[in-house]
Amino acid sequence: MFRLPCQPRNGWQQLATEFGFHFHTMYGEPYWDESAYYQFTLKQIEQDLEDPTAELHQMCLHVLDKVVSSEALMRRFCIPEPHWDLIRDSYLARDLSLYARLDLVYDGSGPAKLLENNADTPTSLYETGFWQWLWLQQQVDNGTLPRQSDQFNSLQEKLVNRFKDIAAHYHIDQMHFACCKDTDEDRGTVQYLQDCAATAGLTTDFVYIEDIGLSDNGLFTDLRDAPITDCFKLYPWEFMLREPFAEALSGAQVHWLEPSYKAILSNKALLPLLWREFKGHPNLLPAYFDNDTPDEREASAWIKKPVFSREGANISLIENGKESVLSDGPYGEEGFVLQGYQRLPRFEDNFTLIGSWLIGDEPAGISIREDSSQITQDLSRYLPHIIV
Amino acid sequence: MTQQKRSKHINLSQMRKAFALKPLAVGVAGVLLSACTQRQDAQIYTNLDDCKDDYPDAPQRCEAAYQRAVDEAQRTAPRFGTESDCEYEFGDNRCQYVQTNSGSFFMPFMAGYMVSQLMSPNRYYSQPLYTSTSPYSSFRSRWVTADGYVFDGNIRKRNYRVRPDTLKTKPTVTRTMSRGGFGSSVRAKSSWGSSRSGWGG
User: Fold this and answer.
1) How big is the A-B interface in CB pairs under 8 Å?
2) What is the Cα–Cα distance from B63 to B69, expressed in whole angstroms?
3) pLDDT band for position A60 (50/70/90)?
4) A333 touching chain B per CB within 8 A
5) Nearest CB to A211: which of B8, B179, B199?
């Protein structure tokens, strides 16, 4: 695993405009960065990232099975009691999931370590599945990269196939797609999924989360009063379960993507449960609930993070019994978990985090994000990768 | 024998998005979909007179519908950095140079406008349409909206109605009682001012 400098493609910004990639620069800072790329061997990809991703996913499903059948654990995961049945039913019905992203710490050798499972609303999908794919094609075509370069990235292909499976499973030929207002990034991600779904033969309709309506007979509706029966939502379950329309969820009978059991898989409480079930597994970091006593021999320092949080908010470092706050944020009221502190690998002045994607139950590719800070991935940049 | 680890093929022309993602004031899909429950016709006109011929008693409404489409075109037409990019998509001499306070660009001429429920004050609707003469474009001889919706049939087809809906029977909605029951957590949490905009992880 190397980080190599690389000549950016001429006029790639113009190309981005043509393809509708509008969030390559955010808040005046570059987000898509092709001035360098990461290079892996096939062995690193397959043995150290792909296989562990499949295995970690199965381990998470094992924990999910335990949680849905335990009231104590549902409570521990801060699932509001009125929705336990909704989640359990969705799990028992084996509702299909579309995707997830496991964040892994990996430096090219040794086992990758699971930092967390973004199982509900992972982003950076478009730049992974399409944009870095296009980058590789073009850099190979213009001779900048060796002809035999490959990439661990079958995301788009698998997304299209997954939508075909979902359409067949639910006997549908139409789906709604939803995200919040005022975010180019989320809208772009959702549009990308609409494109994939359309390629799979589905008709897609878009509605903003805030515009979803509730009808007199208990169905969710779009702005045209058309019923929402099958819906992809780029909006976290932990929010949905606590908002005014939550009580209509069970009556509305929507097939959601992601399904509601993702409230468990995307929950940070998953981490201590994984450690409890698979203690010592090479791809896991030690993890505990914050009111448990962690085994101090397992880590020299601990990261304390909220059960619910986004984008590295509300994180503290605990070292020698002293807690120092690393990032602020609005989260934490539901409690915290502790995870053994694992430094991100450093490449030049960058700290590097690998996102490893699942489509359905299959590993499908990786995305690489760099940050100048060790822990908070606040203004991280996205870099492409190749396999040689 | 090693297998390729990346997607074998991606249809690039399908991924091009010269069109803005911003929804129109009223999307054309709206006409088509709401028609699932209450069938709704829509007509395409290529000039003002054709509309007036259809509505001899309401020429002002035709003018208003035309003007609304023109205004909408200013706001939502696909924009291109160069004339050749625009003409590649829409055909030779089909693009105009536009200069605004926020910059200059090329955009296609409005080729027609779609009108529905012209006589209804509440459901009346009008929007600009485009077509292409470019052999490279998937819109060649088709009607296409500013947000990229391509109508079936060629540009001679001027009247549209709904496709009968879906394999699965959709439940019927008579009335939406309330909106805004999802999304409040975002407002509550965003005051914290994350440097990233989305809610993805």
Assistant:
1) 224
2) 10
3) very high
4) no
5) B179
CB of A316 within 8 Å of a chain B CB? The answer is no
Half-sphere exposure in the Cβ direction for B147 (13 Å, CA)? 15
Q: Given CB atoms, is A250 within the 8 Å cutoff of chain B?
A: no
Q: A183-197, B14-28, B119-133 — which one is most confidently predicted on average?
A: A183-197
- The DSSP call for residue A40 is E
Residue A212's H or E segment, with its range, is none
What is the C-alpha separation between A356 and A349, in angstroms, rounded? Answer: 23
Percent of all residues in chain A with a pLDDT value above 90, rounded to a whole number? 79
Return the bridge partners of A288, or none.
A338
pLDDT at B187 over 90: no
Residues A209 and A100 in one domain: yes
Is A44 among the domain residues?
yes
**Co-location of A242 and A317 in the same domain:** no
Two tokens at A101? 């992203």
Nearest-by-Cβ selection for B198 from A170, A185, A330: A185
**Which pLDDT score is estimated for B40?**
62
Q: Which residue of B has its CA nearest to A242?
A: B185
Count of the separate structural domains present in chain A: 2
Question: What is chain A's mean pLDDT, rounded?
Answer: 93
Test B4 with A150 for CB contact under 8 angstroms: yes
| Sheet of A36-40, strands arranged across | A2-5, A36-40, A385-387
Q: Do A216 and B174 touch (CB under 8 A)?
A: yes
Residues A234 and A332 in one domain: no
Put simply, the answer to whether A266 touches B201 (Cβ < 8 Å) is: yes
Query: For A69, phi and psi rounded to 5 degrees?
Result: -100, 15
Same domain, A12 and A86: yes
pLDDT band with cut points at 50, 70 and 90 for residue A326: confident
| Structural tokens at position B170 | 């959709």
Burial A120-139 (b: 16+ CB within 10 A, else e): bbbbbbbbbbbbbbbbbbeb
Tokens found for residue B59? 């020429």
Least confident of A10-19, A116-125, A291-300, B144-153: B144-153
Contact A97, A74 (CB under 8 A): no
The alpha-carbon gap from B115 to the nearest alpha carbon of chain A, in Å, equals: 17
Q: Is A185 in CB contact (< 8 Å) with chain B? A: yes
Residue A291: name the closest of A304, A279, A280 by CA. Answer: A304
CA distance A168 to chain B (A): 11
Residues spanned by the domain of A229? 2-267+345-387
Shortest distance between the Cα of A59 and any Cα of chain B, in A, equals 21
**Contact (CB<8Å) B33/A378:** no
Q: Do residue A330 and residue B15 have CB atoms under 8 angstroms apart?
A: no
